[in-house]
User: Which sequence fits this backbone?
């Protein structure tokens, strides 16, 4: 019986609203715009496709190639790193806030490094090695808004730092 | 179900029906689907940005609509300890005036920059009422970019209303006063003789936004209240409401309410502009501050301007015409077509609607009253009038438009919003507000193309609307859905300060233009530290300049010794981050001002004068990373003349670097 009363009252209430309302039946949808995602689509939709050898971002073996050391590029890379990187990284093997740079070019190909330093957030979320590093450092590497050439110059400096000729 | 039970249900339904159709109680005015109309789900954006005056807080609040969520509070004519605004050395000049540092004002009205009569989303202009100022807020950074002081003025209330392409933003004085300077030392009782109303026309550079006082109109001494520019056909004209045409200087409550009609002053600003260009204005020596914030040096400068061009309207017969308007007009609002001007006499029992075409014809026909006002022509009321809205409510203040031929007027005394049709002047709907509405706002409702979906009423009194908070209660905004025939109250939310006017624009006009970081490479601050290798501490006499960097999560340097009593220490903090939403804060124990909040790529300075010897911690005040609590350091202060050398360091590695940099 109780249930019936509630049902009846609900119907009555609906009737009342219908009787008094004029514009109240218009659809309330479409009052908001959807937040656009900052992340690349693959980051949100397809975590399984992550390739730890390549990293995630614009770069791969086809568009990043290294040859004989370009000292001018390395000098530029060092200058950029002084502003944007050396607060947290030493050029030795010693960890400061983040790991030391010594040997990084033998651990990772140039395109992986360029992906990581230009697109750190998705890789911190997915790359097993980076996640292990985060457990040690506890500070997520900031996105320092490096341009393509800036990132490439920094890689050249890392190569120089690792003894490339 | 038995017959008896059924009849009980019917009775209950009848009772519900009766109560729900009588919106007397405050809760019953809201219908069932209100929540869904204002609900913006987590992660979703609002449809509109609204910029709401913070009144006597001196700040500008930004709310999303329809949710009513507070997105930002922008300090304009105020200091703001949260943001270090007015506390950092770089922002102090923004609050400079000819009276010196004035860290407060009364911010009433909001005007978006316009292109072709619609908001373009570049800037918001706001007025400072008390120490007359006009400010421009940049909508890339949501920061105050420029403030200009207004000479010959007092009570900059009739401001900051603008023309169709923001050629001019006006600033009309509410309190007429003698012109600035020594000649102002006159008896107050000589008001009629010596007090004048000055209206500044402030030009705005279309590209940079830079403001300048192009000219001032010197008018009879009355109280200028509000204003609107013509639009479309009436572009080229400006309409100012004014009261105290009695020219009373005491007990205005009574003495300025004597005449049956005051005025709307119609100004042919294109004509005034021609006179100024022809060199007809008089140059007046005067002093007023002009403050600008430079985004590359991250530093404001304050310059004292020393001249203004004044046109005395009594010397030019075709600039100014008075239109009689009943009983102390407040709002003076122009409809989207530019044809209708609605005058809202605060004490009047009707709403006059004037016709631009009829005003032009009256001027051509010289349909003037036999008696001039202060030597200026007064158009005959009937010659300018389109018609009157009869018995609209009590205490009309402001009118906005929905673009569909309807006007919406706020009524303070009867505490309601009234919708009426502009063509036939018939009242279509009225809804109560809680309580005592002042301004109201429809997104774009003052422009050529209103978005007639929402209306927000800004209320002066909230009494029983929210959980009580002692003697001082917040004011409120009430959101109505006006997409149907009847206005529907769907939300109310508390506001900061006292909300006067507001404007709103579609979010799409602004949201994608946001500056996310300052490029560290473009930082031209003279004390910028672009990398820890450049961090240093330099003594210049008794000034100690600390070039200090912040990045997650340490300062460089973080140990400083050799500061002495009597020193002035300047911490120039550069945030080396280049990622959105990673500011660092900076506080030092005992600093007699505030904190810094430094955006990525920015340099900001905190001045600290130690008052005792000892060890003073510094730390980051804005949670920046998992190691934020470790972002700290120490400064040692020794007696004057101490032999402790000036040193600075960060760990071991950087100590060497820093030493090498010395």
Assistant:
């Amino acid at each position: 019986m109780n249930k019936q009363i509630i049902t009846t009252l609900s119907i009555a209430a609906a009737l009342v609203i219908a009787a008094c309302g004029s514009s109240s039946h218009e659809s309330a949808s479409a009052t908001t715009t959807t937040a656009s995602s900052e992340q690349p689509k693959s980051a949100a939709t397809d975590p399984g496709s992550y390739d730890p050898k390549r990293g995630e971002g614009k770069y791969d073996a086809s568009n990043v190639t290294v040859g004989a050391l370009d000292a001018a590029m390395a000098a530029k890379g060092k200058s950029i790193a002084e502003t944007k990187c050396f607060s947290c990284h030493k050029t030795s093997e010693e960890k400061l806030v983040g790991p030391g740079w010594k040997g990084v070019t033998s651990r990772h190909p140039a395109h992986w490094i360029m992906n990581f330093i230009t697109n750190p957030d998705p890789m911190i979320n997915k790359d097993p090695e980076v996640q292990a590093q985060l457990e040690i450092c506890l500070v997520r590497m900031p996105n320092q808004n490096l341009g393509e050439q800036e990132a490439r110059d920094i890689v050249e400096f890392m190569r120089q730092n690792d003894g490339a000729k | 179900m038995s017959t008896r039970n059924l009849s009980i249900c019917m009775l209950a339904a009848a009772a519900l029906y009766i109560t729900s159709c009588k919106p007397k109680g405050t809760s019953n005015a809201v219908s069932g689907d209100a929540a869904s109309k204002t609900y913006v789900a987590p992660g979703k954006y609002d449809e509109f940005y609204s910029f709401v005056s913070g009144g006597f807080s001196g700040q500008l609040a930004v709310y999303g609509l329809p949710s009513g969520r507070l997105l930002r509070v922008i300090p304009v004519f105020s200091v703001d300890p949260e943001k270090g605004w007015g506390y950092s050395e770089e922002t102090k000049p923004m609050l400079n005036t000819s009276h010196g540092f004035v860290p407060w004002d009364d911010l009433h009205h909001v005007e978006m920059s316009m292109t072709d009569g619609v908001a373009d989303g570049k800037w918001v202009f706001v007025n400072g009422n008390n120490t007359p100022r006009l400010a421009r807020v940049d909508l890339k950074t949501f920061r105050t970019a420029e403030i200009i002081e207004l000479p010959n003025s007092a009570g900059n209330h009739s401001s900051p209303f603008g023309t169709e392409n923001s050629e001019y933003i006006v600033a009309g004085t509410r309190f007429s006063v003698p012109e600035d300077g020594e000649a102002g030392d006159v008896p107050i009782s000589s008001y009629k003789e010596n007090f004048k109303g000055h209206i500044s026309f402030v030009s705005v550079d279309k590209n940079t936004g830079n403001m300048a006082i192009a000219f001032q109109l010197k008018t009879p001494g009355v109280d200028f209240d509000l204003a609107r520019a013509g639009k479309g056909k009436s572009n080229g004209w400006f309409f100012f409401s004014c009261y105290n045409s009695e020219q009373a200087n005491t007990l205005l409550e009574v003495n300025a309410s004597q005449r049956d009609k005051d005025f709307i002053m119609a100004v042919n600003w294109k004509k005034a502009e021609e006179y100024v260009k022809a060199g007809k204005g008089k140059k007046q020596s005067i002093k007023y501050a002009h403050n600008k914030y430079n985004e590359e040096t991250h530093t404001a400068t304050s310059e004292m301007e020393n001249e203004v061009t004044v046109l005395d309207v009594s010397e030019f017969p075709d600039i100014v015409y008075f239109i009689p308007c009943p009983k102390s007009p407040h709002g003076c609002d122009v409809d989207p077509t530019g044809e209708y001007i609605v005058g809202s006499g605060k004490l009047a029992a009707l709403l006059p609607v004037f016709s631009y075409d009829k005003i032009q014809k009256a001027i051509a026909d010289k349909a003037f009253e036999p008696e001039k006002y202060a030597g200026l022509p007064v158009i005959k009321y009937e010659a300018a009038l389109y018609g009157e809205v009869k018995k609209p409510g009590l205490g009309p203040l402001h009118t906005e438009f929905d673009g569909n031929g309807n006007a919406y007027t706020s009524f303070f005394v009867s505490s309601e919003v009234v919708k009426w049709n502009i063509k036939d002047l018939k009242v279509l709907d009225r809804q109560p507000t809680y309580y005592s509405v002042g301004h109201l706002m429809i997104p774009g409702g003052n422009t050529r193309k209103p978005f007639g979906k929402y209306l927000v009423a800004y209320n002066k009194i909230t009494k029983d609307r929210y959980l009580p908070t002692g003697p001082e209660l917040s004011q409120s905004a009430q959101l109505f859905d006006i997409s149907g025939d009847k206005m529907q109250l769907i939300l109310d939310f508390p506001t900061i300060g006292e909300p006067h006017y507001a404007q709103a624009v579609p979010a799409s006009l602004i949201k994608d233009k946001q500056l996310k970081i300052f490029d560290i490479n473009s930082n031209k601050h003279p004390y910028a530290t672009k990398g820890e290798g450049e961090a240093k501490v330099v003594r210049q006499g008794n000034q100690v300049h600390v070039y200090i960097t912040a990045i997650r999560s340490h300062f460089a340097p973080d140990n400083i010794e050799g500061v002495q009593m009597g020193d002035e220490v300047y911490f120039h903090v550069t945030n080396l981050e280049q990622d959105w939403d990673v500011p660092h804060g900076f506080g030092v124990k005992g600093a007699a001002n505030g904190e810094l909040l430094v955006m990525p790529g920015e340099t900001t300075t905190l001045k600290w004068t130690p008052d005792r010897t000892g060890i003073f911690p510094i730390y980051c005040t804005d949670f920046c990373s998992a190691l934020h609590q470790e972002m700290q350091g120490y400064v040692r202060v020794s007696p004057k003349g101490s032999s402790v050398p000036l040193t600075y360091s960060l760990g071991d590695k950087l100590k060497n670097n820093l030493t090498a940099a010395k």
In short: The interface with chain B takes residues 1, 4-5, 8-9, 12-13, 15-17, 19-26, 28, 31-35, 82-84, 86-88, 90, 94, 96-97, 138-140, 142-146 of chain A (CB under 8 Å). The first helix of chain A runs from residue 2 to 20. Helices of chain A lie at 2-20, 41-45, 71-84, 104-107, 110-118, 120-126, 128-137, 148-161. The mean pLDDT of chain A is 80.
